[in-house]
Structures are given as structure tokens and as C-alpha cells.
Design a protein that fits this description.
CATH topology of the largest domain in chain A: Rossmann fold
Largest sheet of chain B: 7 strands, mixed
Largest interface: A-B, 53 and 64 residues
Strand content of chain A: 25-35%
Shape of chain A: elongated
Number of strands of chain A: 18
Distance between the termini of chain B: 34 Å
Number of domains of chain B: 2
CATH class of the largest domain in chain B: Alpha Beta
Radius of gyration of chain B: 19 Å
CATH architecture of the largest domain in chain A: 3-Layer(aba) Sandwich
Helix content of chain B: 25-40%
Helix content of chain A: 25-40%
CATH topology of the largest domain in chain B: Rossmann fold
Shape of chain B: globular
Radius of gyration of chain A: 25 Å
Mean pLDDT of chain B: 95
Number of helices of chain B: 10
Oligomer: heterodimer
Low-confidence stretches of chain B: none
Distance between the termini of chain A: 39 Å
CATH class of the largest domain in chain A: Alpha Beta
Structural class of chain A: alpha+beta
Order of helices and strands of chain A: HEHEEHEEEEEEHHEEEHEEHEHEHEHEH
Order of helices and strands of chain B: HEHEEEHEHEHEEEEHEHEHEHEH
Largest sheet of chain A: 6 strands, antiparallel
CATH architecture of the largest domain in chain B: 3-Layer(aba) Sandwich
Strand order of the largest sheet of chain B: 3-4-2-1-5-6-7
Chain lengths: 368, 305
């Protein structure tokens, strides 16, 4: 789960990491109260789960009430890289002399955590120069390592101790909350040498969420995505009009690629999981039927162990119960496919022998 | 490192040649029991099962023990396949490795990354191999199947298939089989961010196998396993044909596409990055799974010259 900035900062506060004074609001009335409480000037920051907010104009300074009325609404209505603003963080500005970069990151290639720091923060990680990188096993940063890193990026005097303390707190957070990434960019060095986390990005391990009921309040999913999870599916909503359903993440991704190569647009990515049963396919069709934009359903199942007639029964049940009235273009790999074809002969489900043929038919079918 | 072919089938002359004993942890669960039957049907020598609290009972004639330690003590098995739910993975895997298991095939999906890393450290210490988690398993077609793959997709032969995705491994192997290219080993490394056996590890396990004719790598977006493998192939001057397929070109960024590991951040983990590194290593990348056998045939043709 990717936390929003204000959520990450709540965790920072819990772990004793210093952050600027600020408060979150979700509408302009709430916002006006926060503005009164903080006093001008402050920064208006859109809370979206993607980077590049500064460039998109989703972070702006605000000096007075007139500016506030204009900018607050503008930023609240904003969409950054396809993500709508979820909330607005109003935050006091700090005077600082330097911006650093700090992150603890699960390095998949090296199969361990790494700490990355730099004296040149404030830009996206791809552009951060002079990175100091150390491997840190399961995420614990020894004091000696933190100290060495602080000196390597040129920190001096009391800032060294402040930074070592920050690194150790962030390390504790990473381990205890099972984060795959905990990033502070920038870390501001104030005029008195003390430091402050100006931004925060945390991605936690979804698979460990059963051990972290305390993080559930940050979970933000659409109703459909929630229903999918309950059924043990993965659903990612997309912008097109053809629902793509399959078993196995790789197979569904591959189907999405081929659909896009042939000029089709996917409405969703729906992985029903490794096996497929009458019940699971019926559940999947239930979910898809709730998406208004869908004009057709493309199904790619590599059963092998599963009988295609088992899956065909799900389609028939869905038509019988008037759950769906959409055309289905399906490629079902597995036993008894002749029998499945016979079962579906007079329905809106068409079976194809190859994925390619099913995709072509779907792309043409939804244009009609 | 243990020789994977020797672990799976032994040496000619061994009393248990091509009949290596395997234990199943989580044998009485819905998934474990179904696939135990299918594996036995394929000819895999399943000698014991483990389900805590059911020790002393039997499943389809296979004796059940409470712990992997007891099962290994009774049978001498070095291979275990694990079907327990994700939250019990850590305990079951540690039990198996402590018992002396040398090849642990971890099927469960949704294992916390921290648990995988903890088990991996223990496996390294014990000189054991972990495949997975979130893997469909490993097989030598027509000899041994330790996993959940449908048998009908595979035939014996001389091509190795290494895959991040389960169903795509079946799909690609099926296409190869139809085109007349059988397989000498197929291995799913799993769709998680941290894999017990990486693409590079798997490549090193098979690259010197004398009967190997070529390798097919089935990758997907996320991480940099494909990129590092491509570099490793260049560095090791490996000359036999390799063909790749990468799924996820059309996936949006920063969205987890079903597999915990299938997520792109910026350019890190993107399909373009993987395809361009494969091209650099002279590994052609198929646009669709059905194209893999054609590209492989083309490579074989050239390799002959």
C-alpha cells in the first residue's frame, strides 16, 4: 500500500521524526479553519499517490485569504498523472539552508534493504546526484553505519547526530511497519543545524497487512477493488471499455498487451487466481457487470487442470440470472472444449481456439 | 551449490534414480490434497505428508507426520513442496530446512517479504535451494513434477523454460510442445518481489547441463531480474540460444498487476528497460507467447551454422 504524504507523516510523528506544523482537510470549509489555525503564509499540497506534484502545480505557496480561495479549490479539483487529489495538506514553511535525500529501500536485485542518502535532495530519485548507498540486510541500520553515512554526505557538527537519530528512527519504522520503501525527500537542514522531514513516501508490504491492523485506516480502495479482494481476485481498474479476465497475473498482463497492440482498450485487469472454478468465474462476471463502461468481456483462461465446461457453466448461469447481457469473447484452454462450445452455442459468449482470434473479435465486437 | 538435476532425479545407478522421495507440507489442505493426487499420478514419488495435529493418519496411502523433522527422519527425503497458507509459511519453511531439506518448493502466494528474506538467509546457511514463494513449481517433464502445473502442457526434451509467471509458463511450454520443442526442465521463479531462486540463480543451475539445447525466459514487469540476467549472459559468454518474452508492456505505472512484484516505478521495472537489455544480449523478445517457438527455431537454425 502506498501511503499519502500526510499518512506517512503521521507515522513519522509516531516514531519521533520531526515534521513541519500542518493539517489535512478534504473540503474548503475545513480548509478555511485549518488556514485560520496555521496563519499565513503556508504551502498547499495536494495529497495524491504519485510523484511529480511540484511540476504539476499541485504544490503551491499561499500568502493570503484571496490566494487561498483560488488555489485551494484549484488544487482540490486537480488530477496528477491520472490520480485525483484525495485531500489537501496545509503546511507551515520552514527556513532552511540545505536539502538532503534519505530512503530505506527493499532492493529486489540484491535481496536486502539498502540505505540511500545524498546531500543533494529535493529532486526525484532518478536525478539525485552523489548517492551514497549501503546494504543493510533486513533493514536495521547500526549507529556506526548511520554515522559513516552522515559524514560521507558532508554533514557537520550537531547535524551529524540529528541525522543519525533520524536514520535510526526511520529504520525502526521500516522494520516494524514492514515497509518496502520509506523515503524522506527532502530532509531539510535548518539554520540552527537541526533537521525536518519536509515530505514523506512510504510503501508497505500488502502481504504483511494481516500483522498490521493499525495500518488499515490508510487503505483506500474502490468498492469494486474491495469486493475483488474478498473473492481472492486482483482487480485494477483502467480507462477502456473491454474487461480483461484471466487466471494468473502474467497471463492477464500478456492479454492486456496483445489487446493494446490490436487497438483495443482495457476497462480492467482482473486476475481470478491460479485455478478457475464455476464459482470464481461467476464472481468475476458479477464484478465486471458492475462497471458501466464495459462494452465487452475478453476472457483468457489457461486451465489445464480445469475443465472448460466448468467455466462455461459460469457464463450460462450469468446469462440465465440476467447478471450480464454483454458479449463475451473467450479462449478457454483445458479439457472438454468441444462440449463447452456446444453448451454456449446460442449465447452471447463466443469461444475461440486462440487468444489472438478472441482479441480480434473483441476489438471489432465492441465497435459495433 | 547443489546440482539441480541431481537433486531432482539422482544419478544413473542410484537405487532411487528418477524416483527421488518428496514430502508434501500441508498435504490435507484443499490445494495440497488435490495436487498431491496429481503429482502422484504423474509419477512423482511422494513418500510423506506433514499436517500438524494429523500425525499418524494417512492420505491416499501416504503417511502423515506432525512435523517435517519427523517426516524427513522416517523417509530421508531431501525435497519438500509446501502448500501451507502464507501466514504459516515461515514456521513450515524453517521446520523443513532445520530437518535437512535441500530443495524447498514454496507454492503459497501472499507471503510477507520479510518472512521470505528470513527463510532465504537460513536456506543459504544450510546450502539449500528455495524456489518461490508464489511459484508454480519445478519439473523435469516425464520424470518428476513438483508443483501445480498441468501435465498436458509439457513434453520431455532439451529446452529449459524459466518463468516469473505460472500460467504463462504453461502457455509458453504448451506452444513449445506443439511446435516439437520438448523441455528438460521448467522452473517458475515466482511473482514475488524477493525470490528464493532468482533468474540468474536458475540460469547458473542449468547453463552447463550437457543436454541443454536452448533456454526460454518468461519475464514480466517489475524489478530488474531480466536486466541483470541479460548482463550475466553477456558476461558469461553463454552461446546457446536464448529467447525471451516479457509481459506487461501495456500496464500502467505504479500499479501492482496481480503479482506482488509486478510494479513499475519510473523506468525501474518497465518492459522497455527489459526488452532493450535482452536485445543488447542478443536475446530476441517475442511480442506474444505464440511467437516464442518461431524465434527459438530461428535461433537454432543460426546456432547450427
Amino acid at each position: 500500500m502506498r501511503l499519502l504524504e500526510y499518512q506517512a507523516k503521521q507515522l513519522f510523528e509516531e516514531y519521533g521524526i520531526k515534521i513541519p506544523k500542518g493539517k489535512t482537510s478534504k473540503n474548503i470549509e475545513q480548509g478555511r479553519n485549518v488556514a485560520k489555525e496555521l496563519g499565513f503564509p503556508f504551502v498547499i499540497k495536494a495529497q495524491v499517490p504519485v510523484g511529480g506534484r511540484g511540476k504539476a502545480g499541485a504544490i503551491q505557496k499561499c500568502n493570503n485569504a484571496d490566494e487561498f480561495e483560488l488555489k485551494y479549490s484549484q488544487i482540490l479539483d486537480m488530477t496528477v498523472k491520472g490520480e485525483k487529489t484525495r485531500a489537501i495538506l496545509l503546511e507551515k514553511m520552514a527556513e532552511y539552508k540545505k536539502e538532503l535525500y534519505l530512503s530505506l529501500f527493499l532492493n529486489r536485485g540484491k535481496r536486502c534493504y539498502t540505505i540511500i542518502t545524498s546531500s543533494e535532495g529535493g529532486v526525484e530519485i532518478e536525478s539525485v546526484k552523489n548517492q551514497i548507498i549501503r546494504e543493510i540486510g533486513l533493514g536495521n541500520v547500526e549507529k556506526s553505519v548511520a554515522d559513516e553515512v552522515a559524514k560521507a554526505i558532508g554533514l557537520k557538527d550537531n547535524t551529524i547526530n540529528e541525522f543519525v537519530d533520524l536514520v535510526q528512527r526511520l529504520s525502526k519504522l521500516t522494520i516494524e511497519k514492514e515497509a518496502e520503501l520509506a523515503e524522506i525527500n527532502p530532509v531539510a537542514v535548518l539554520n540552527d543545524g537541526s533537521i525536518l522531514a519536509l515530505d514523506g513516501k512510504i510503501i508497505t508490504d500488502d502481504n504483511a497487512s494481516f500483522r498490521h491492523p493499525e495500518l488499515a485506516k490508510f487503505q483506500e480502495r474502490s468498492e469494486l477493488e474491495e469486493k475483488a479482494e474478498k473473492s481472492g481476485f486482483t482487480l485494477v481498474e483502467l480507462d477502456g471499455n473491454i474487461a480483461v479476465v484471466g487466471n494468473g497475473a502474467g497471463l492477464v498482463m500478456s492479454t492486456l498487451d496483445m489487446l493494446s497492440d490490436n487497438g483495443g482498450k482495457a476497462a480492467c485487469f482482473l486476475d481470478v487466481g491460479g485455478g478457475a472454478t464455476t464459482e470464481s468465474v461467476y464472481e468475476a462476471l458479477t464484478l465486471v457487470s458492475k462497471m458501466n463502461k464495459v462494452k465487452g468481456i475478453l476472457v483468457n483462461l489457461y486451465g489445464g487442470i480445469v475443465k472448460t465446461t466448468t467455466v462455461a457453466s459460469a457464463f450460462i448461469k450469468a446469462y440465465d440470472e440476467k447478471l450480464i447481457d454483454l458479449p463475451v469473447f473467450a479462449r478457454l484452454m483445458g479439457a472438454e472444449s468441444d462440449k463447452a462450445k456446444e453448451m454456449l452455442r446460442n449465447t452471447k459468449t463466443k469461444l475461440f481456439d486462440s487468444v489472438e482470434a478472441a482479441i480480434n473479435a473483441a476489438v471489432i465486437g465492441v465497435r459495433k | 551449490m547443489n546440482n539441480i538435476f541431481e537433486l531432482l532425479q539422482g544419478r544413473q545407478g542410484d537405487p532411487d534414480y528418477k524416483k527421488k522421495p518428496v514430502i508434501v507440507q500441508g498435504i490435507t489442505g484443499k490445494f495440497g490434497s488435490l495436487h498431491t493426487k496429481l503429482m502422484v499420478g504423474y509419477g512423482t514419488n511422494i513418500v510423506a505428508g506433514v499436517t500438524p495435529g494429523k500425525g499418524g493418519q494417512e492420505f491416499e496411502g501416504v503417511p502423515i507426520y506432525n512435523t517435517a523433522k519427523e517426516a524427513v527422519k522416517a523417509t530421508g527425503a531431501k525435497i519438500s513442496i509446501l502448500f501451507v497458507p502464507a501466514k504459516f509459511f515461515l514456521g513450515a519453511a524453517v521446520d523443513a530446512l532445520d530437518a535437512g531439506i535441500k530443495l524447498l518448493v514454496a507454492i503459497p502466494e501472499h507471503v510477507p517479504v520479510r518472512d521470505t528474506m528470513t527463510v532465504l538467509e537460513l536456506a543459504k546457511k544450510n546450502d539449500a535451494i528455495m524456489i518461490g514463494p508464489n511459484t508454480p513449481g519445478i519439473m523435469i517433464p516425464e520424470v518428476i513434477k513438483i508443483g501445480i502445473m498441468p501435465a498436458s502442457s509439457f513434453r520431455a526434451g532439451d529446452v529449459v523454460v524459466l518463468s516469473k509467471s505460472g500460467t504463462l509458463m504453461y502457455e509458453v511450454s504448451h506452444n513449445l510442445t506443439e511446435a516439437g520443442f520438448g523441455q528438460c526442465l521448467t522452473l517458475g521463479i515466482g511473482g514475488d518481489p524477493i525470490n528464493g531462486t532468482t533468474l540468474i540463480d536458475a540460469f547458473d543451475m542449468v547453463k552447463d547441463y550437457p543436454d541443454l539445447r536452448g533456454i526460454v525466459v518468461v519475464g514480466e514487469i517489475g524489478g530488474d531480474a531480466e536486466e541483470t540476467l541479460a548482463q550475466h549472459v553477456i558476461d558469461s559468454n553463454f552461446e546457446k540460444p536464448i529467447v525471451a518474452y516479457v509481459a506487461g508492456r501495456a500496464a500502467p505505472k505504479e500499479k501492482r498487476m496481480g503479482h506482488a512484484g509486478a510494479i513499475v516505478y519510473g523506468n525501474y521495472g518497465s518492459a522497455e528497460s527489459k526488452v532493450s537489455m535482452f536485445n543488447k544480449a542478443n536475446i530476441p523478445v517475442a511480442k506474444r507467447p505464440a511467437e516464442v517457438p518461431m524465434l527459438l527455431a530461428g535461433k537454432f537454425e543460426k546456432y547450427k551454422d
